[in-house]
Amino acid sequence: MKTEVVYLIYGGPGGEAEVSRVSALGIFQNIDRHRWRVVPIGITADCAWYLQSEPAPGADRMPLEAGPDHQVWVVPGGGLRTRDHELEKGRLLPIVHGSFGEDGRLQGLLEWTGWPYAGARVAGSALGMDKDLVKRVWQHAGLPVVDWHLVRRHDPASVQNAVMQDAVSQWGWPLFVKPANSGSSVGVSKAADPESFEQALLTAFRVDGKVLVEPALSVREIECAVLETSHGPQTFPLGEIVPSHEFYDYEAKYADPEGARLVIPAQLDHTVTVTIRDLAVKAFILAEARGFARVDFFIDRTTGGVFLNEINTLPGFTPISMYPRMAQAGGVSYARLLDLILESAL
């Protein structure tokens, strides 16, 4: 079988560049080399693209080095090229998590190449990244979401204080404060009083100018992997995150090996499992997702209510990431999963 070229794109200027490199290594190590020939492209913090060498044995992430002879440019209608030559046409697999890579900006650039790429398009990426907008879409369609208040960086202090007071009056302390456009819990804080709320706003505003304030419910965190197929979106056995930290923050996800216990399949009542998998498909479609995505849920420990939390249109592919592990629990190997994702590239 003739191999087809896949350009694995990772890194970027956002706060999740290092996670992206770890995800890219997982993909590089598990992809079927009898079918795909992988060409790594790393994006530096200043947004420049460079061809990369293969990772060294024992590496824990993909390389990311700048070299003028290996710089890559997007040519509108003409794919990718270096200073000296056009690159062979292939499929593009972006795995740039967070800002610049998951919010539609990279996808818009990939559209200009004229080459097929995996994952959500521009609209779905932008919508999925914005927690406020996607919750409005889901809520309008009648899907259950955790209630929230919105505050913006340019709001006067009196308005920000009024939002805090309304939230406390409605839900009490503590509150979660999170940037609307961010991933991997970057910029998310738990506030227990007015002073920590003010600091949480400052932390969130350093990431995004729009911030959500939500109740700190006692919940179980459930995730669902969705894969688009020729028969429509399919789901896999659910996973549950049991964090050892106060909540599933960035450190618990990526820095602390003991930060969370991942349970697959999640131990849930059959009816709840069916409900969540059905909601995941509906949420995937309404969010204009494509190819693959992870949809995250909360189950209220007090009421048993199920709520959509967010959708991740470029989920992690690190050694501990839930998406490939849930697929494997459903009988789809890591390599086969990558086949299906690349086959779905338009």
Task: Give me a quick take on this structure.
This protein has a 6-stranded mixed β-sheet. Strands 11, 12, 13, 14, 15 and 16 form a 6-stranded antiparallel β-sheet that branches.
Query: What CATH architecture of the largest domain do you see?
Result: 2-Layer Sandwich
Contiguous runs where pLDDT drops below 50 for at least 5 residues = none
Q: Determine the CATH topology of the largest domain.
A: D-amino Acid Aminotransferase, Chain A, domain 1
Q: What fraction strand?
A: 25-35%
Taken together, the total number of domains comes to 3
CATH homology superfamily of the largest domain: ATP-grasp fold, B domain
SSE ordering: EHEEEEEHHHEHEEHEEEEHEHEEHH
What is the total tally of β strands? 16
**Biggest sheet record:** 6 strands, mixed
Radius of gyration, in angstroms, nearest whole number: 20 Å
Write the layout of secondary structure elements.
Layout (H helix, E strand, L loop, with lengths): L3 E8 L5 H14 L5 E8 L5 E3 L19 E5 L3 E3 L9 E4 L10 H9 L8 H8 L1 H10 L8 E4 L4 H15 L3 E5 L9 E3 L2 H12 L4 E6 L3 E11 L2 E4 L3 E5 L6 H6 L4 E4 L6 H17 L5 E9 L5 E7 L9 H8 L4 H10 L3
Parallel strand pairs: 1-2, 1-6
Antiparallel strand pairs: 2-3, 3-4, 4-5, 7-10, 8-9, 8-10, 11-12, 11-13, 11-15, 13-14, 15-16
